[in-house]
């Protein structure tokens, strides 16, 4: 498991301060998170003001229960006192202990090996994985190949490159590509994520090992990607339950546009012309169900947004905002934090820094309260409300 927290960050380019999600406890058995970490794509944030992307150098704890491994990275460790190092290590190990079952706790987790450079820490992790220097060099070659693919725009040249390097396009290569795609999405770089997804689909189709590797990776990570409107329509037609149907409507909301329904209507017309009454009736019922589900989800989303907006206004106008937050902790969901984040960014854009600072302080206060409640209820073995996921803080 990974522990997400929110940190106040100052952009080195434009000096604006904003909240950013960070991962400071890394589970080595989480394939996606581990890949992002080893490729230095973790804790890379985008400034909401100027758009600059910056890597964060922060203390973090890496652990792997299977390999009985626990490492801690201490940037600027040489400038720290022993007491400072112990305090940071203690904070990270306590964070881990509070988020994992008691039966999984081992002594080595409480005594992680410190590293002052990320390079030496990654080398140790790879050695524990049985990765030799030769294997590491081979991985670097695949990363270089991926970079070369991204620079190519001519399809014929791209196909020739795939043919010449087919032996390198294995499971490991597509793990690297998938991690890069997820990292781009995590950073808020939707255009980059889409470009990587398109490249992955092309390489999977053109290479001998690609389709099998991609299918295995996506199944292991529990990820399903919508390629286009036709892909979404196919998934809606083949949904095995109402729950799955609603899932696809929600996740494919942006694809449910005029073109989508025009395509569906053309299929209905084609069935009518072919005098296939059963198919025509089935497609009409599907269209109605999609429209009804989409409309209901939009109404629910709008209601949640209005509720969160009213709560935010109540907190901002309160003479005792901390008490108001405490009284409404159960209502602080992802919609609330997404709205708060949007308001902070808008205040920054308008140069209303005092308002932005005040709302940012409220956000930090709310996160802290939720984490304190979670820790207290974890100790009591009771279900606890979860802090919002990091996605709501991505610019």
Explain what this protein looks like in three dimensions.
The chain has 395 residues and is an alpha/beta fold. The protein has 4 domains: 1-131, no CATH class; 133-225; 229-300, no CATH class; 318-393, no CATH class. Helices cover 61% and strands 10% of the residues. The chain contains 16 helices and 7 strands. The chain has helices spanning 31-38, 82-97, 107-110, 118-128, 133-151, 155-164, 171-186, 190-206, 210-221, 229-237, 242-251, 258-273, 277-317, 321-327, 334-349, 353-379; strands at residues 3-10, 17-27, 44-46, 53-55, 60-64, 69-73, 113-115. A 5-stranded mixed beta sheet has the order 1-2-5-6-7, sandwiched between helices. Strands 3-4 form a two-stranded antiparallel ribbon. α1 (31-38) packs across α7 (171-186). The radius of gyration is 24 Å and the shape is globular. The model is unreliable at 382-395 (pLDDT under 50).
Radius of gyration: 24 Å
Helix content: 55-70%
Question: Order of helices and strands, N to C?
Answer: EEHEEEEHHEHHHHHHHHHHHHH
Mean model confidence by pLDDT: 82
Q: Given the helix and strand composition, which structural class is it?
A: alpha/beta
Count of distinct structural domains? 4
- How would you classify the quaternary structure? single chain
User: What amount of the residues lies in strands?
Assistant: 5-15%
Describe the main β-sheet briefly. Answer: 5 strands, mixed
Tell me, what's the shape? globular
First-residue to last-residue Cα separation: 24 Å
Number of DSSP E strands: 7
| Poorly predicted residue ranges | 382-395
The total count of helices amounts to 16
Strand line-up of the largest beta sheet: 1-2-5-6-7
């Amino acid at each position: 498991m990974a522990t997400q927290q929110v940190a106040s960050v100052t952009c080195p380019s434009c000096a604006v301060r904003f909240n950013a999600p960070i991962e400071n406890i890394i589970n080595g058995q989480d394939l996606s998170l581990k890949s992002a970490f080893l490729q230095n794509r973790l804790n890379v944030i985008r400034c909401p003001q100027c758009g600059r992307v910056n890597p964060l150098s922060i203390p973090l704890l890496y652990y792997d229960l299977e390999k009985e491994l626990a490492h801690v990275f201490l940037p600027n460790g040489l400038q720290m006192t022993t007491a400072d190092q112990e305090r940071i290590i203690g904070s990270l190990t306590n964070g881990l202990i509070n988020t994992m079952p008691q039966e999984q706790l081992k002594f080595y987790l409480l005594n992680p090996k410190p590293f002052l450079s990320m390079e030496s820490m990654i080398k140790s992790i790879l050695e524990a994985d049985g990765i030799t220097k030769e294997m590491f060099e081979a991985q670097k070659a695949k990363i270089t190949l991926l970079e070369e693919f991204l620079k190519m725009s001519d399809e014929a040249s791209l196909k020739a490159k795939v043919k010449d390097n087919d032996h390198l396009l294995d499971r490991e290569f597509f793990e690297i590509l998938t991690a890069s795609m997820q990292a781009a999405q995590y950073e808020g770089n939707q255009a980059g994520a889409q470009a990587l997804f398109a490249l992955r689909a092309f390489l999977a189709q053109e290479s001998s090992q690609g389709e099998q590797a991609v299918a295995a990776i996506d199944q292991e990570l529990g990820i399903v990607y919508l390629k286009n409107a036709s892909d979404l329509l196919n998934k809606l037609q083949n949904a095995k339950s109402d729950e799955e149907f609603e899932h696809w409507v929600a996740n494919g909301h942006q694809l449910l546009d005029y073109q989508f329904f025009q395509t569906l209507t053309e299929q209905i017309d084609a069935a009518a012309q072919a005098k296939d009454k059963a198919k025509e009736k089935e497609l009409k019922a599907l269209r109605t169900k999609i429209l009804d589900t989409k409309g209901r989800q939009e109404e629910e989303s709008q209601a949640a947004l209005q509720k969160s907006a009213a709560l935010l206004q109540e907190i901002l106008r309160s003479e005792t905002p901390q008490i108001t937050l405490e009284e409404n902790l159960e209502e602080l969901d992802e919609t609330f934090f997404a709205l708060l984040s949007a308001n902070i960014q808008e205040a920054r854009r308008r140069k209303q820094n005092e308002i932005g600072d005040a709302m940012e302080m409220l956000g930090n206060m709310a996160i802290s309260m939720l984490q304190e409640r979670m820790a207290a209820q974890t100790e009591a073995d009771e279900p606890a409300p979860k802090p919002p996921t990091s996605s709501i803080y991505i610019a």
